[in-house]
Amino acid sequence: MADTNTRISTLVGDNDVVLFMKGTPLFPQCGFSSRAVAILDHCGVAYESVDVLQDMEIRQGIKAYSDWPTIPQLYVKGEFVGGSDIMMEMFEAGELKQMLDDHGVAKAES
């Protein structure tokens, strides 16, 4: 588990925005992951995605790492934000865009 935590820490630390999800941004494998991708795409930020279906150690490890039982999980500048429901609430309130702007997150390339 220590190796998995190190891998997760590296992913979270090396990228401004990381989405641990089921599937990929082009082919999400669940509705919650699809919603999370749509929110991030609408915000226009660059982000790294990790397909937990391709790595069972990451799939289980991310839940322990964040102490959050579900996937997807969003991290911004190393900070755990939440899952798709929290992302949706923050997006609708304008808080997610504000957080991304405040942290100076890079915009996605067109």
TrEMBL record:
Presence of keyword Iron-sulfur: yes
Lineage: Bacteria, Pseudomonadati, Pseudomonadota, Alphaproteobacteria, Sphingomonadales
Source species: Erythrobacter ani
Keyword Iron-sulfur recorded: yes
InterPro entries in alphabetical order: Glutaredoxin (IPR002109), GRX_PICOT-like (IPR033658), Monothiol_GRX (IPR014434), Monothiol_GRX-rel (IPR004480)
Keyword terms: 2Fe-2S, Iron, Iron-sulfur, Metal-binding, Redox-active center
Protein name: Glutaredoxin
Designated gene of the protein: grxD
Family, per entry: Belongs to the glutaredoxin family. Monothiol subfamily.
Domain annotation Glutaredoxin: ranges: 17-81
